[in-house]
Structure formats: C-alpha cells, structure tokens
C-alpha cells in the first residue's frame, strides 16, 4: 500500500505531540515576550520624548494600541481555528480556539480601559461613543458570547461545535458591524476629532509601539498555548500518556489508595 | 419541493397564530417597551421625537429576541425537529420556511403597528411611512440572524439571556441602518442609501443565514 | 529625559491615567497567569490521582492472580 505524504504539522494535531511541543516552545515565547516588553517600555518611557500636544499621557498608547490589535487578531485567529474544527473535525483546533478566547477578551477589555483613561486627560471624557471604542466594545461582547456558549453547553463536544459556528458567524459579521458603526458615527457627526488618535509619531515612538506589539503577540502565544496544553490534558484525563506526563513532570508520589478514585470527576477548568 | 415547503409554511403560521396568546404577548411587549421611553425620559415632545426612531427599533429588536426563543424550542421538545431534519428537502430550506413563518406571524404585526406607535412618540408625515418600511426590511434580517442564535442555544442552559448576548451584537448593523433611515427623513437627509444597505443585508442573509441555522440545528440534534 | 524618579512617577501630571493603565494591565496579566497556573495544578493533581488509581487497580489484579 502506498503511503500518502502528509503535511508534517498535522502530526501536532495529536494531543501528546502537541503537549510536548508546547513544553518546548513556551519558555522561548515567555523569554521573548519579557525581553521585548522590557525593550519596548524602555524605549517608550526613556527614549521617546513627551508629545507636543498630549504631554506624557500619550504613552498609554504603547499599551492601548497593541492590546486593541491583539484583540482583533485573536478573534480572527479564533475564527480560523473554528473553521478548521468544523471543516475537518480536528478537536485540537477547538482546544486552540477556546484557549485563545479568554486572552482575546482580556486584551479587548484592556484596550477599552486604556482607551478610556487616555481619553480623560486628552479630551476631557472617560467615554465617547466613537466608531473605534464602540466597535471594540461590540468585539468584547462577541468574545464573551463565545465563552458563554462554551461554558453553558452540557456536552463539551457539542458546545465546542456550536461555539465554533458562532465564531464563524461572528467573524463574517465583524466587518459588517465595523462599517455600520463607522457609518453611524459619521452620520451623527458631533465630534470632529476621534479620541485615542495616535499623535504623529517620532521614530522612537514607533519603535516602542512595534516592540510592545511584538511583546503582546508573544505573550498571547505563550499563554494561549499553555492554556491549550492544560485543556488538552484535561480532555485526556483517563489516558495513560497524560497520566504518565503528569507524574514525570511534577515528581513521583507514593501510591495511596484514593477514597474517591473510581468516581468520574467532572472538573471544568476556569481561566 | 415547493409544495412541501408551502405546507410547512402554512403549518407553522397556523400553529403560531392559533396560539394567539403568543402573538399578543409579543405585540404587548413591543408596545410596553415603547411606552417605557416616555416614562423614563419625560414627555417633552422634542426629546421624544428625537428618540422615536431608536426607541421603536430597540423595542422591535427586543421583541424579536423574545419571540425567537420559541422558534425551535417547541419542535425540539416534541421531536418534530428530528423528523424535519430527515425530510428530503434541505434542512436550510426548512429553516428558511420556519423563519419566514415566524416573521409573518410575529414580525409583521410589529411592522403594521409601528406607525401608530411612532406617532405616539412624535413622528409625523413621511416618517410614518419610512418607519414601517425600514422595519419591513429589517425585521426579517433580525429573524434570520436570531434564528442562528436560537438554533445555537437549543438545549443549552442559560437560554434566553445567553441567546441575547449572542445575537444582539449581530443585530447592531440592522439597528443602525433601520433607525438611521428614519432619523435621516426627520432631518431631511438621504434615507435611500440606508434602505439599499438594509436590502443588501436582507439579500445576503436570506441565502446564507439558513445554512448557518441548519448547521446549528444539526449540531444540536447530533 | 526625566529629572529623577519623582518626575518620572508624576508623568507631567498625567500619573493617574498612565499608571492606572499600566497598573490595570499588570493586574490583568498576573491574574490571567495565576488563574491558568491554578487550573494547571488542578489538572495535574487529577491526572496523578487517576494514575494512582490505575496503579492500585493493576496491583489488585496481580494480587488476585490468574486462574
């Protein structure tokens, strides 16, 4: 029988290989994130000069803009994994999508918070219904809906597929929502200046922004993959390879008969 | 195939309409929500008039949400939905028929009532024509999108509130365009572009949403 | 660029907003990592319990002997 050549990365769709891969990758991702964040913050606070108009408050941008970008990017990535999950029934894709969602929601919420705090000293208000903030708020609701659907389903498989379908429907609607909110904003033209507009950027500001964006990206990758790793292990609680992996990583313990060992533990992960 | 769908349509419409209770409840909800606006905001005519398009549209969106809870729930509970999934016609067409029946029985009354309620909030003249027209284009889209949410939350605990969280972000574009059209008429602007966009949304939703609904129903029935 | 630590912390008068932002980020990120860490501990603990249960069951079979 002739062997078909497979794409090599499909082998990571097997949980044991994936768990091992994350163990190898994660330290590098964390290290990279920390280094880039330190560099970005240094440039952002000690090299980039105060802004002519906004003074020092603009430095919030080094957090706000990467968080906003990550929120959008993670939703898109989540939707891609959702499509893979639905089209090819790859369960690990559902694990990935589910693992990226909390970080995406957190980034989106952070961008709303920082956007609000940036607007206060600059435009005198903590909140405006402009196109960008409003769209970001709606994106947060889309994330929360995805997480809520996953959490509410009594059957993990089914809930995963329903949530993936929701993510696909959501991602199709995101451009529609974004453009209709922009449209809405230009119609009710009360404000000529959009808050949280970045100042015209000196090179050092741009450099800091890029460094912080890369740092956020690596952070999201590190924590997303770690979360996916935990979820993959949780789903394979009864399999020998997973039990062995837990034993070897955390150190062996003397076997003690567990009173409740036979019972089916339904431990849902949070976070 | 057309005959079978026509039968399904008639069955669904008559089912909903014979439970007149349901239609009246949704209609009453629509009216009550609109009534809340003057009570909460004050009866000044100028303020109410500015709010009117938004108020009617929000009430219509919430009323749609409320009614969509029952779109598949009854058939799901008594096993009819499983039977419907087995018919030779594509499940997407069955879904479309159900959503259409749902709109005819529960959405159309909102469209017909809206001029009267709009008048009570201070709309006059051409606005009283544009309002129902915008609802006529928009509420079917709400029904189609809401159908996706209803199918996704079948048999899931958290039901109505969860469905609201899932669907309301999707409702936003329709809401913006629909109420925006009426606002434009009020201020002498161009409302036709809103209608074109609403029409475009409807044209895209009609073929695509039933596919998503069918996929969601299959997930629920598996 | 800064005339000492005081100047840096004051951020030209914008301290509450700048540090409020970075502070919130720090809190959220730490929270995310801690929650995941705890979830991980729980998962490993569960896996170890299952492993032990499997071991004791296997030992039981051996002790019972085959016919």
Give the topology, please:
The complex is a heterotrimer of chains A (271), B (222) and C (67).
Chain A (H helix, E strand, L loop, with lengths): L14 H33 L13 H28 L2 H33 L7 H22 L3 H32 L15 H33 L4 H11 L21
Helix pairs in contact in A: 1-6, 2-3, 2-4, 2-5, 2-6, 3-4, 3-6, 4-5
Chain B lengths: L1 H17 L1 H22 L3 H24 L1 H8 L2 H7 L4 H30 L6 H26 L6 H28 L5 H30 L1
Helix pairs in contact in B: 1-6, 2-3, 2-6, 3-6, 3-7, 3-8, 6-7, 6-9, 7-8, 7-9, 8-9
Chain C lengths: L3 H7 L4 H50 L3
Short description:
The complex is a heterotrimer of chains A (271), B (222) and C (67). Chain A has 271 residues and is mostly helical. In chain A, 71% of the residues lie in helices and 0% in strands.
How would you portray this structure in words?
The complex is a heterotrimer of chains A (271), B (222) and C (67). Chain A has helices spanning 15-47, 61-88, 91-123, 131-152, 156-187, 203-235, 240-250. The model of chain A is unreliable at 250-271 (pLDDT under 50). In chain A, helix 2 packs across helix 5 and helix 3 (91-123) runs antiparallel to helix 4 (131-152). Chain A is mostly helical and 271 residues long. Chain A has one domain (13-188, 201-234). Chain B has 222 residues and is mainly alpha-helical. Chain B has one domain (2-221). In chain B, 86% of the residues lie in helices and 0% in strands. Chain B is built from nine helices and no strands. Chain B is globular, with a radius of gyration of 18 Å. With 67 residues, chain C is mainly α. Chain C has a domain at 19-64. The longest helix of chain C is centred in the middle third of the chain and has 50 residues, at 15-64. The radius of gyration of chain C is 27 Å and the shape is rod-shaped. Chain C starts with a helix and ends with a helix. In chain C, 19% of the residues are buried. Chains A and C meet through helix 1, helix 2, helix 3, helix 6 and helix 7 of A and helix 2 of C.
């Amino acid at each position: 029988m002739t062997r078909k050549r497979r794409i090599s990365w499909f082998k990571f769709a097997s949980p044991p290989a994936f768990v091992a891969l994350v163990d190898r990758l994660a330290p590098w991702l964390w290290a990279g994130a920390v280094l880039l964040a330190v560099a970005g913050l240094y440039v952002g606070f000690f090299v980039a000069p105060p802004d002519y108009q906004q003074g020092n408050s603009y430095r919030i941008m080094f957090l706000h803009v990467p968080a906003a970008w990550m929120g959008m990017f993670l939703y898109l990535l989540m939707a891609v994994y959702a499509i893979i999950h639905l089209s090819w029934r790859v369960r690990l894709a559902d694990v990935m999508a589910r693992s990226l969602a909390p970080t995406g929601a957190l980034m989106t919420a952070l961008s709303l918070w920082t956007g609000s705090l940036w607007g206060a000293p600059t435009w005198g208000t903590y909140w405006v219904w402009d196109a960008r903030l409003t769209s970001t708020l709606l994106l947060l609701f889309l994330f929360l809906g995805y997480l809520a659907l996953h959490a509410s389903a009594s059957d993990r498989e089914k809930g995963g597929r329903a949530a993936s379908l929701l993510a696909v429907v959501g991602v199709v609607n995101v451009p529609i929502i974004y453009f209709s909110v922009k449209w809405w904003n230009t119609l009710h033209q009360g404000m000529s200046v959009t808050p949280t507009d970045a100042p015209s950027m000196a090179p050092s500001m741009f450099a800091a922004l890029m460094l912080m964006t890369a740092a956020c990206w690596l952070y999201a990758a590190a924590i997303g993959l770690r979360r996916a790793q935990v979820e993959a292990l949780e789903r394979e609680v009864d399999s020998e390879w997973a039990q062995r992996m837990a034993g070897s990583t955390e150190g062996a313990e003397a076997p003690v008969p567990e009173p409740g060992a036979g019972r089916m533990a339904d431990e849902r992960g949070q976070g | 195939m057309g005959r079978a769908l026509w039968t399904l349509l008639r069955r669904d419409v008559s089912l909903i309409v014979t439970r007149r209770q349901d239609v009246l409840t949704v209609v009453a909800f629509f009216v009550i929500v609109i009534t809340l606006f003057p009570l909460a905001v004050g009866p000044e005519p100028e303020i109410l008039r500015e709010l009117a398009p938004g108020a009617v549209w929000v009430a219509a969106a919430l009323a749609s949400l409320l009614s969509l809870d029952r779109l598949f729930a009854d058939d799901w509970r008594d096993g009819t939905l499983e039977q419907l999934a087995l018919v030779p016609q594509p499940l997407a067409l069955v879904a479309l028929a159900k959503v259409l029946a749902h709109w005819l029985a529960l959405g159309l009354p909102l469209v017909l009532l809206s001029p009267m309620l709009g008048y009570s909030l201070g709309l006059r003249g051409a606005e009283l024509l544009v309002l129902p027209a915008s609802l006529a284009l928009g509420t079917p889209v709400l029904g189609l999108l809401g159908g996706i949410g209803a199918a996704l939350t079948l048999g899931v605990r958290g039901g109505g509130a969860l469905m609201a969280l899932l669907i309301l972000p999707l409702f936003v574009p329709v809401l913006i365009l629909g109420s925006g059209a009426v606002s434009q008429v009020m201020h002498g602007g161009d409302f036709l572009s809103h209608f074109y966009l609403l029409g475009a949304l409807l044209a895209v939703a009609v073929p695509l949403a039933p596919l998503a609904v069918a996929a969601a129903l299959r997930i629920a029935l598996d | 660029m800064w005339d000492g630590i005081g100047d840096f912390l004051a951020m030209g008068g914008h301290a509450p907003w700048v540090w409020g932002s970075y502070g919130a980020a720090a809190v959220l990120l730490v929270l995310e990592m801690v929650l995941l860490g705890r979830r991980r501990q729980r998962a490993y603990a569960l896996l170890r319990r299952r492993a032990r249960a499997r071991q004791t069951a296997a030992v039981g079979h051996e002790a019972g002997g085959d016919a």
